[in-house]
Amino acid sequence: MSDVSLGKSVAFRGGGFAPKPHRWVGVLVFISLILFAEWGTRTGWISALTLPKPSDVLQTFQELYDSGLLFKHLAPSLSRLIVGAAIGASIGISVGILIGLFSYIRSGLVPLVAAIFPIPKIALLPLFVIWFGIGEGSKYALIAFGTFTPTVVATYGAVDNVDRTLIRMGQSFGLSWWSIVRKIVLPGAMPGILSGLRISLAIAIILLVAAEMLGAEYGIGAYILEAGSLYDLERLFAGVVILSLLGVLVSAVIGLVERRLLGWRT
């Protein structure tokens, strides 16, 4: 006799291979690595010239916080990252959607994007300094440009990967072109767009450090450059940890947006 005839509930399998969140596993991995590094540096198994003690790095964080230098360096970095990434990502998503929807725009812009995509963006920093000056403009421009190109590629790729069966179904129901774009194409492309944003924002953090190492008094990049020139490993690793935490924060924000916009996938 079947489960249905017996009145038994059947487990829902529509979610497929949806991963279950186990946040404590990530925390445990981080704690284990920190404890291992502390043990290795204290016992001499890891050279002090290679890796500082995590406890010393933590003490450096405390000194940065007490002196107020933490926010003096962090605030301008966040401002540059937010403004530059917002400009690059918004333009990149818009251009990517246009490329995905219109054949003439695709024919004109895809070769251009393919030409500029492989260029190392850090190599263009001197050019941006010439164009926009040594101040904030060149930093915003570098971050925006570095965020723009991968966002464009990810966006029009996501639009191309929307299931054409759904589009034909919308056409069969008499939906207008705009309704199909708004109700089928954009929601279907959103997972790919957000995945591309993860990569783009990670690139933006890398370019932020590079930009701040040239002509910036305050910023995480300037702090790391100063610590490196003095071979102050505690301060150097403190700056690296700040960048890592910034990357975790960006990933968490993208994850929150995914849960809000892509709840229909579950």
TrEMBL record:
It comes from the Bacteria. Its main location: membrane. Pfam families: BPD_transp_1. It is found in: Cell membrane. The chain crosses the membrane at residues 21-39, 81-105, 112-134, 140-159, 199-224, 236-257. Keywords: Cell membrane, Membrane, Transmembrane, Transmembrane helix, Transport. Belongs to the binding-protein-dependent transport system permease family. This is NitT/TauT family transport system permease protein. It comes from Marivita hallyeonensis.
